[in-house]
Amino acid sequence: MTGDGHPGPEGPHGARLTVDLGALAANWGRLAARAPGAECGAVIKADGYGCGIRRVGPALWTAGCRTFFVAHLSEGLAARAALPEATIYVLNGLPPGAAGAYAAPRLRPVLCSLEELSEWAALSRGRHPAALHVDTGMNRLGLSVPEALALGGDPRIAGAGIDLVMSHFVSAERPEDPVNARQIADFATIRAALPGLRGSLANSSGIFLDGARHDLLRPGYALFGGNPTPGRDNPMRPVVRLRARIVQTRQVEAGTSAGYNGLWTAPGPRRLATLSLGYADGLPRALSGRGHALVGGVPCPILGLVSMDLIILDVTGAPAARRGADAVLIGDALDIDAVGRAAGTIGYEILTRLGSRYVRDYVG
Fold first, then answer.
1. Which of 89, 260, 348, 358 is catalytic?
2. Residue 327 pLDDT greater than 70, yes or no
3. Domains of the chain, residue spans
4. Which of 185, 276, 312, 334 has the fewest CB atoms within 10 Å, i.e. the most exposed one?
5. Exactly one of 45, 49, 279, 362 is catalytic; which is it?
6. Which of 160, 204, 162, 168 is nearest to 184 (CA)?
7. CA–CA separation, 41 vs 199, rounded Å?
8. Region 240-363: CATH code
9. 321 with 271: CB under 8 angstroms?
10. Is 279 labeled as catalytic in the residue annotation?
11. Interval 118-174: pLDDT, tens
């Protein structure tokens, strides 16, 4: 199936991205079960973490999700087209003069300043709901804690249709970090000063912290198979599998270099395979000499520099390697977090950089 859900041919470079919608739905259900008294939403920004918002949104809706979060207005419009009845919050604040653009498609801005609160209240007059973001430590977006505490009884809360107050964890994936307890305590104080509003603090990792779950969960990365509990077994099912066909193989002798600038030199006779994908497809150049792919289940190192459209593997120990054979870049024993570590980054970045040239298959 293509990204539009229609059968399609192999991509021009024989690379396919498979998204398991059944696993996605199962992950949502598993996270929802951790807080049976709360609602479980879903963060589907960055085009559904690179998986396609038009497909992952409806799959989550079918699983029972009714509240979604995106980052920008453009993403909100895409989400609304896919989810006509859903509640959709737009996380990154309200740009000046943009209130009408949010209200018309029934998008709920997450207001991040007193100026945004006033502007939305002037348009909304209580008719269009919104959320209020309070910063409890990230120092990125949101009202300060003193600003939020001073809003108790402020008519702008009702005028802006505020139905949700939220904050964002600094370090939820590190449960031992004392900043988590401070943020949980500050958020409780804010909620007490703004009674009657639902609260949302828990992101993917926050769902696994005591005292953080409140009324509405906001998982994102974990839905797509990323590990919300680093250092422990991943409780999520894998969702994404990336594979590409080998374009060509060749035998080289000791002393032969490969790739730009000849940064890799064969220490002995080696068999090489070329795949037609590279950093233009979201494979970081930082995987050069550090990452690997699986060919017939055998780990095959990436040699030399990752190019824009090509990478080279050492397939000497992989008897299944031949022209047309699959190499797995994400999936099987090579999960998204492992790929991120190999590139010196995180799985989030790997997912959200997956390019548009892949044929996307939706299964499950």
1. 260
2. yes
3. 21-224, 240-363
4. 185
5. 45
6. 168
7. 12
8. 2.40.37.10
9. yes
10. no
11. 999 999 999 999 999 999 999 999 999 999 999 999 999 999 999 999 999 999 999
Neighbours of 60 (CB within 10 A): 26
Report helix, strand or coil for 29. Answer: helix
Which parts of the chain are beta strand (E)? 15-20, 39-40, 42-43, 67-70, 87-90, 107-111, 130-133, 162-166, 198-200, 216-217, 240-252, 257-258, 264-265, 270-275, 292-295, 298-303, 311-314, 326-330, 359-363
What's the CATH number of domain 21-224, 3.20.20.10, 3.30.930.10, 3.40.50.300, 3.40.140.10? 3.20.20.10
260 carries an active-site annotation:
yes
- Concatenated DSSP letters for 153-215? T-HHHHHTTEEEEE---SSTT-TT-HHHHHHHHHHHHHHHHSTT-EEE---TTGGGSTT---S
Structure tokens at 304: 């030399």
Q: pLDDT, tens digit, for every residue of 187-242?
A: 999 999 999 999 999 999 999 999 999 999 999 999 999 999 999 999 999 999 99
